[in-house]
Amino acid sequence: MIQKSLGIARIVTHVIVFIILTMLTQLGGVIYLISRRTHPLIMQKVTRPVLQPLVKIAAFLLIYLFSMLLIIPLLAKPFGRVPLPIFRKDGLQPLRLSTCLLNRHYVRPDMRHAALDIAMKMNRFHPGTVVNYLDGGFPFFNSFPMLPHLSHNDGKKLDLAFLYIDKASGSPSDNAPSVIGYGVCETPRPGEINTAESCREQGYRWYNMLQQIAPQGNKERYVFDSLRMRALMTVIIYHPAIHKIFIEPHLQTRLQLESDKIRFHGCYAVRHDDHIHIQL
C-alpha cells in the first residue's frame, strides 16, 4: 500500500513538473520527459545515491541548453518564428538572460527586423543607448498561452523596457530596476491620469498584479529618463512596421506623444507604466 502511494506521488510529481515547465518555457516539459530517458544509465553509472538526483538535474539542464541554442531555433523557422539576439546586437539585447532561457524571445522575422532597426535609430539620436527587450513569444504554434500576457501568442508582439538614468552617477543606464523586467512602475504624478486606481476601483485587481509580485528594492536607484524615452517612443511611432503601441495614458501625456498607434490596453490587462508593448 505504501509503495503504491509512493508510486502515485511520483507520477503526480512528474505531471506537475511537466505542466510547470511547459507553462514557463513551452518545451521544457517535453525536454524533461526526454531527459528521463537518461535516468537508467545514470542509476547504473552513478553508484552514490546522494549524487544521482544532482546528475539527473545536470542531464536535464544540458539537454535543455543544447536544445535552446541549437535545435529550437531551427525547428521554429517553419512556424514563422526567429529568436531575438541573446547578446547585444546593434544596440538591442534582452534585459534579463532569463527571457531567452525560458524561450520567450521568439518573434516574427518582421518584428526582429523592426526591433533591431528601432535600436539602431535610437543610437543615432542618443549614441550608446541600449534598447532592452522583454517578452516576445514562444517558438511554436499560434494561440499557445504565454502567461501572464493576454496576446503574446503569435510572434507579432514584443515588450521593451523603459530607459533610465542611474541616480548615483547621473548617467544613462542600460539596466532597469526590476529583476524580472516587469512590475517596477513609473507611477502617476499628482495631477496625472491614474489609470491603475481607476481600474482597481472597477474591480480589476490583477491590473496591479506584477507590481505586487516584483521586488521594489532597486527602484530608488533609477530615474525615469524622459528625454530618451520620448526619443524611443518617437522612433517606434514612426516605424512603418509597428501598428500598435501600449503605454500607460499618464506617460503618453507626460512625454507629449500624439499618435493613432498608441492605444489603451484596457483594465483586463496589466498596467503598462513599467514597459512598452509594440506589435506588428
TrEMBL record:
Keywords: Membrane, Transmembrane, Transmembrane helix. The chain crosses the membrane at residues 12-34, 54-76. InterPro entries: Zn_M74/Hedgehog-like. It comes from the Bacteria. It comes from Chitinophaga pinensis. This is Uncharacterized protein.
